[in-house]
Amino acid sequence: MLGLTHYLVVAALLFALGLFAVVTRRNSVTILMGVELMLNAANINLVAFNKYAAPAAMQGQVFALIVITLAACEAAVGLALVLAAYRTLETVYVDEINIMKW
Amino acid sequence: MTGEAIVFYLLAAVTLGSGVMVVTSSNIVHAAAALVPAFLGVTGLYILLNAEFVAGIQVLIYAGAITVLILFAIMLTEGGTGLGTRQRNEQAAVGTAVAAAMAALLIAVAVRTGWAPPPAGAVLPSYTPGAIGQSFLRQNILVFEGTSIVLLVSLMGAILIARRED
Amino acid sequence: MHWGWEVLRAIVGTVIIFSGVAVIAAMFGVLLERKISAWMQSRLGPKHVGPQGLLQTVADTIKLLQKENIVPSRADRLIFASAVVIVPLAALLDYVVIPFGTTRWGPLIFRDLNIGVLYFAATSSLVVIGILMAGWGSNNKYALLGGLRSAAQLVTYEVPIGVVLVTVALMAGSLSTVTIVNGQAGAHHLWYVLQQPVAFVIFLIAATAEVNRVPFDLVEAESELVAGYFSEYSGMRFALFQLGEYGEMFAMAAMAVTLFLGGWLGFSFLPAVLWFVIKLYAVIFVFMWVRWTYPRFRIDQMLNFSWKVLIPVSVLNLVVTAFFVIVR
């Protein structure tokens, strides 16, 4: 019998995977992929709460749509930044992008 | 085991399995290709949650556009040729601990809280695209207009940032 | 209903759609293309295999089946193989929401989703991933270039298709394909091609670009990039790519018939399914006629055309349509 908890557990595990990618990986595009996984986990939470806790309104689904749109914007700008950084600094690995003095 | 539960476990396995491949693969193109089953698994979860419009938009935008964007970024930077370099930085142990702690915390909260069941007799409204559109133009019009401005600004910003300076 | 019956219906429907598309779209479509091109070029097409050359594609398929399956030595095997699955899969998934006719029990459609045209746009956008993976996995500079150019072209031409789909859905009041066809029925409703001629033309142009056909086939023309993103594929994998391309073309034509030409509607002396098939082949004939008439565009001309002409015109059409729908 499926309940709200099942979906929340799946979303929590997906969020943890995304967090692991953001903290651990060197390539900036992989970090952006981790961010996308985290946003998907948040969306699953929103839609699951919509169905199980507040089915009369559709705020959860509306917010999930807004989050998908904003994730697309953020991915576009983020990858434009990665391309611009690659053009200037010749690298995409975040631990090599270190032009500060100390 | 009802059919819904079988489909749920299958979709959760597909999503989490490809998620693991995304975050641990040392070949970045494999990682980007594994994003597609992850997003399609999430689409299936949305359909189980009676959110068909969100599922359609998820396939169209995430699997159809964001994955293509990520693949383009990989192919236009050196990610594809530097396949021999190590992909994990020195924080691997700390990162694993942090992610595991976060997962444990969230799962503990989710399992231990007694979520109130939905009010009895509440009939599920049909989440048709028409109803979602009406709600965008009535209760949620502010966030709708704000999101369209964010889309315009990010479109201009992405073009300006990534443009070749000649 | 027990969920086992739904699974069985899904499996049977998948087999029917796959074999239907494989036979009618891929085999018959290739033969039709060769015969029509021959007729337009004042020559005879294939004539020897079978009566009037009808079994030519069967012979070609058997030839392709027995060819060696070559994988380039340093290609990424996983990505090389999975690209072959994604492109035909996305093309076949399009057929779920197309209504082929009407029967005593309701419309002859696999599943009348209430997000019908959105689902169609979504599955058409899955082809791009397969193309990028095919271009990358071949370990070939020309395949990679062809894959990147084709992906850019497909992503660009998805936008006019999306706007035109929204325009027609706006006129019908729903995203479901059956509702859109029913909105063209009756004595006081015209087919949408008469109410929205600009949208029809834009849809046909963008659909031609979506399936990589002339005049937009720079990415897979033999004189340009050998075969573009599928240069390194041989044997059955090549046949599956062709299945995907022709299947997608037939799906786009079927959607044009559903959205603009009234689907299965027609005078009652012919069954509804036959009307659908007649209109479908009329649109396919237009696609093939355009192919053998026009030269091809350069990639920058193609992309400029979409961004600077098709998208503004389709958005303007949408605004004007919305104005009239509200005012009336």
What kind of assembly state do the chains in view correspond to?
heterotrimer
Strands of chain A, count: 0
CATH top level label of chain A: Mainly Alpha
Largest sheet of chain A: none
Shape of chain A: elongated
N-to-C CA distance of chain A: 57 Å
Q: Residue ranges of chain C: pLDDT <50 for 5 or more in a row? A: none
- Chain pair with largest interface: A-B, 74 and 85 residues
Q: Give the amount of beta strand of chain C, in percent.
A: under 5%
Shape of chain C: globular
The strand line-up of the biggest sheet of chain C is: 1-2
The CATH topology annotation of chain A reads as Helix Hairpins
Number of domains of chain C: 1
Strand/helix succession of chain C: HHHEEHHHHHHHHHH
Helix content bin of chain A: over 70%
Overall pLDDT score of chain C: 86
Number of domains of chain A: 1
Q: What CATH architecture of chain A do you see?
A: Orthogonal Bundle
How many beta-strand segments of chain C? 2
Explain how this protein is built:
The complex is a heterotrimer of chains A (102), B (166) and C (328). By secondary structure, chain A is mainly alpha-helical. Chain A has one domain: Helix Hairpins, CATH 1.10.287.3510. Helices cover 75% and strands 0% of the residues of chain A. Chain A contains 3 helices and no strands. Chain A has helices spanning 4-24, 28-52, 59-89. The radius of gyration of chain A is 17 Å and the shape is elongated. Chain B folds into 2 domains: 1-81, Four Helix Bundle (Hemerythrin (Met), subunit A) (Up-down Bundle), CATH 1.20.120.1200; 129-166. Helices cover 72% and strands 0% of the residues of chain B. In chain B, α1 packs antiparallel against α2 (28-48) and α2 (28-48) packs antiparallel against α3. Chain B starts with a helix and ends with a helix. Chain C is mostly helical. Chain C has one domain. Helix content of chain C is 67%, strand content 1%. In chain C, strands 1-2 form a two-stranded antiparallel sheet. In chain C, β1 and β2 form a beta hairpin. Chain C is globular. Chain C starts with a helix and ends with a helix. At the A-B interface, α1, α2 and α3 of A face α1, α2, α3, α4 and α5 of B.
